[in-house]
Amino acid sequence: MIRAQSDPRQPSGSRAAFLATTPEDVAARGWDRVDVLFVTGDAYVDHPSFAMAILGRWLEEHGFRVAILSQPDWRSADAWRAFAPPRLFCAVSAGNMDSMINHYTANKKRRNADAYSPGGRIGLRPDRPTPVYAQRCREAFKGVPVVSGGVEASLRRIAHYDYWSDRVQPSSLVTSKADLLGYGMGESTILEIARRLERGEGVASLRTLPGVAYLLGRNEELPEDSTGETIDLPSYEVVREDHRAFAEMTRRLHHETNPRNARRLVQPHGDRLVVINPPCLSLDEQTMDRLHELPYTRRPHPDADEPPPAWETIRDSVQIMRGCFGGCTFCSITMHQGREIQSRSPDSILREVEGLAKAPGFKGQISDLGGPTANMYRMRCTRPEVEAVCRRLSCIHPKICKLLDTDHAPTLDLMRRARAVEGVKRVHIASGIRMDLAADEPEYLDELAAHHVGGHLKVAPEHVSDRVLDLMKKPGRGSFETFAERFEAASRRAGKEQYLVPYFIASHPGSSAEDMIELAIFLKERGYRPRQVQDFIPAPMDIATCMYWTGIDPMTMKPVETARRLQDRNVQRALLQFFAPENWKIVREALLRAGREDLIGDGPECLISARPPRGQTQKAGRGGARGGGYRRPSRDRGKGRP
Does the pLDDT of residue 416 top 60, yes or no? Predict the structure, then answer.
């Protein structure tokens, strides 16, 4: 097989330094066709934070010829037919995000920007592009296998609730008719698929691979499973109508995510069967290093007239790990990246920092040294024999597992070494940090406050109601208050006045208007005025999404009250931004309904005035200010600020 790697000596702005994106690029490399054609809904950015880059470079590293078809006009197959049929397969992905979350707000309004498109332009991909792209592949390339993957396919691999249509949808395998679906991050899966197709094996033989799902035809036999165990899920037709069956499906799925003990899952869809093999094993440190040290240009492809906003955010960042063992019920990271932390070696990370420091245009600022959770670097279970059988969904809820290694020393050493690199002026920690892990590490807090926070530290307590926090699988209110006190003390020791920027979620399952009033009081007492607010969006396959759709906690099968009407969701958002003049009427009505007239007036404990703000007498609020950032607490509230 001819080695297909791009020449790293090419200038970073040269087309030849990127993966091929056009038939002309393919011809310029002396190829008649490629082995794998990637079709993606994102703009092509050659950076390891973008899926098409890391997967394409990984195949290229192993000798395969790759081309990227980025954001093609999906209304016909013409963009596909411009390429010769790929020799092995087409790889289809909606992009780095689920397309519906990318396109629509929590209120189902069309977003006015797409962070993964040039200049943030909208309309460069369809809603739910996975089945659309797969169909165009079949039209253009008869008989060429189609493999779907990425976040959208991964999170829709079984029957799932779709918030935007407000109904349960079948597995994306049914709608896309893909030959295989690779779920999770995909490097191991896509490489093994390419290798085995290269050896002449048929697609059906790939159905034994870990990390894949497939649709079994009505006349096909279910292959023997090497583990000897298969878990039946309630059928699509049943979970579409029966909320308890949907909750049971969700519970079974989430208990089969540890690659060391997960069992195969099957779910009938009519007279066909969706089969989901156990996930792939986590990548080891050596493989993580190789992946991140491939010859990326770290730049958008030169065909883009403007860079995607997402690249501007991560261009000078360094990813040190992936995965999260937090298990928050509203978060999809663990279902896509896995619960096991997969870390790079310090030397590999520092080589990337050194390369950034020498890059033209670098201004001395590393924008982030992190991952899904910055202070989980190199943390893992200390008992492999226990880890091999564990089915716990979170290593830190309801309390931190005693077998979890929570040592921050590797992270501390990395932070110190990174900022000592010549040419680096500051290393920011912009990824989220897990406060319950950090609060008991005074040396980490001192280092963070003294060197890695530029005045504000973003944190995500999410709520203050312990009941709601428990449904989220987040630590209780006291955990945030403890962290806030200790971070403030660490900032004082560093001689700095610094503030936390807390993020909270409105309308999470279990959260009532009364809970949001409790949160508003908390914010008032501490002088917090959040200008960026998360409205809960039910993402496919999350535990919290199951609660939203069914009104049942799938882990306990107990009922959960949920704000589902738009009117009720607007009330919760308004209470979170009670201080915004346009929210006065909504907040007042919510307080009156809750019997909290004591919070209306001019007293220091009141949330709103008894008199409407000027111009608001006849005008109902619509959900709060939307400016960027965070309003710093006024100095006269110093005693109340944590």
Answer: yes
- 480 vs 435: CA distance, rounded Å: 7
Give the orientation angle of helix 566-576 with respect to helix 513-526, to 10 degrees.
Answer: 20
Instruction: Measure the CA–CA gap between 498 and 450, rounded to whole angstroms.
Output: 10
The upper half-sphere exposure of residue 603, i.e. CA atoms within 13 Å in the direction of its Cβ, equals 7
Using CA atoms, how far residue 56 sits from 39, 62, 171, in Å, is: 11, 10, 26
Give the model confidence (pLDDT) of 432-491 as tens digits: 899 999 999 999 999 999 999 989 999 999 999 999 999 999 999 999 999 999 999 999
Tokens at 407, concatenated: 């040592």
Q: Which residue has the tokens 């790939």?
A: 206
Beta bridge partners of 500: 457
- If phi > 0 it is left, if psi is from -120 to 50 it is alpha, else beta; for residue 224 that is beta
C-alpha–C-alpha distance, residues 516 and 513, integer Å? 5
Query: Which residue is listed with tokens 């009720």?
Result: 568
Q: Are 299 and 312 in contact (CB under 8 A)?
A: no
Taking the C-alpha atoms of residue 593 and residue 571, their distance in angstroms, rounded to an integer, is: 11
φ/ψ bin of 593: left (φ > 0), alpha (ψ from -120 to 50), beta (otherwise): alpha
Distance CA 459, CA 482 (A): 13
What does the alpha-carbon distance between residue 53 and residue 58 come to, in Å, rounded to a whole number?
8
Q: pTM to 2 decimals?
A: 0.92
Q: What are phi and psi of 82, to 5 degrees?
A: -65, -25
Cβ proximity of 217 and 203 under 8 Å: no
Q: Model confidence over 384-396: pLDDT tens digits?
A: 999 999 999 999 9
Question: Whole-angstrom Cα distance, residue 449 to residue 485?
Answer: 13
pLDDT digits (tens, 9 = 90+) for 274-299: 999 999 999 999 999 999 999 999 99
222's tokens: 């279910």
DSSP string, 261-278: T--EEEEEETTEEEEEPP
Q: Residue 81 is encoded by which pair of tokens?
A: 């037919």
**157 φψ region: left (φ > 0), alpha (ψ -120 to 50), beta (else):** alpha
Report pLDDT digits (tens) over 167-180.
999 999 999 999 99
- Structure-block tokens of residue 294: 């491939």
Where helices occur in 177-231 by DSSP H, the ranges are 187-198
109-113 long-range contacts, CB within 8 A, separation 24+:
113/309
